[in-house]
Amino acid sequence: MAQLGDLPPELILTIFSHLRLGLPMHDLFEWPGDIDEQGRITGVRWNDLLNFSLLNRHFRQIVSDKLYTQIRIQGKLPITRLVSLLRFVTAHPDAAADVRQVYINLDSGRTGSTSLRQADVDFIQAAAAKAGITYPAQILFCENPHLAALDKKGIKVDRPGFWLLEQLRLQVLVNISLAHLKGTQELALTYVRGVFRDFDLIKDMPKSIYTSEDEDHVNRGIGWRPMVVGKPCLPQLFSLVTKDTRTEIFVGDEVANLLSMGPNISRLCLDDVGVYIRLQNSGNWANISHLTLTTQHIGFAAMRGISERCGALSIFKYLPTAPLERTGSTPAQPGQVIGALRKHANTLRTLCISSSRHSLDISIDEPVSKLDGFVALENLWIDKRTMIGDLGVAQRMLDGIGIVDSREAFLRSLPRSMKRLHLHNAPYVPSAGLYWLAGNSDLFPDLFRFELDWPMRGDDTPEEDIRKLFLQLGMHAPTRREMVRDPQLWDRYF
């Protein structure tokens, strides 16, 4: 059991100061944040103290009977770390029951599987049986001691199918560990690399896998069978973040397997998940109300499929990034994304849509021209490229008063339910549209925050005049330094 002397001296002083002054000890463990869309645990104070509280039961009882804690698995040798975590949660079920946030970063380098011994294999098998997790027994075995010695020296041993086997092992250990953390409410899995796939492997597999990852993608012939790992059930899980830097597809069964872990998942972030998504049916899609797609890009068919499967979206963020390499997949245009979202026009409250990081090799010729019909929309973050595309000049559109600039027509189409509006690269917004918005502020009775983000002083729009005008109308019009310019985090500060 951990001792108080294991803590940094400044934390020991803080603890005893709280005790001497009679201050509530639980304050030491309070944090305002949660797992954000990038998979990071935000706002956590005193990480060393939290980790200590997991190991020392008596200290936990002094501080609080119910202590919300978090666990992180990151760095190299993830298999070694996951085995250690599994030993801890099975030996300390009372501490494991207090865990609410879990962050697992599966490093793609040395996984540490060569350090597995027979005692580890037997322990994993017993822990899996206790948690009700099934897996193909032949994927966990003791490695050749000679290979283990080479691995410790940093010498890579290239064996056919090695990485496929490593992914299966990681999947087994992650699932068993999570099955012992039933109280998990927020889960972040970064660098997934296909860990939650239903792999197909050769039927008669000896103590290695004689196939490459490429063969696994294309061959589905005779002699192959699915290698399925049992999935944990986390009844309290409501937030799931996945981050993957593959350029290949994010296979549909991965998303389905991830969603099947919790019947109450309502917040889902697919971050860097590849160039397009093949979806499989999962009943849990209907529960998703907060969806973030920070992808290299997503195809229109996948976007439409996601929109149809989700029950009633409340928050949606579409923030595509440039792909790591050229692909044959065609991404959804911003206008197509909005078209797919119209099913949720009566429930969508927050929309963050940006094309500023989208690949410049792919022209945006279908921007977001109008948002009429989204009657519940309250918060909008949108940038210049999403509004006008890559045409170079704004289109002329037919509006109720005649032919107007497409950007002005966009502002005129804003729902009357708007509360917060962020226009990124605001110098590209015409003055006529902004003056119309200010002059018709009575049409937007709830609009109280108006963010005009000028990267530099623009010539098209008199920045200070517009800002003063909205201030006179009683709206909060912050300067660039006062506003949150990251669309991924913008709504976190409401």
From TrEMBL:
Entry superkingdom: Eukaryota
Name used for this protein in its record: F-box domain-containing protein
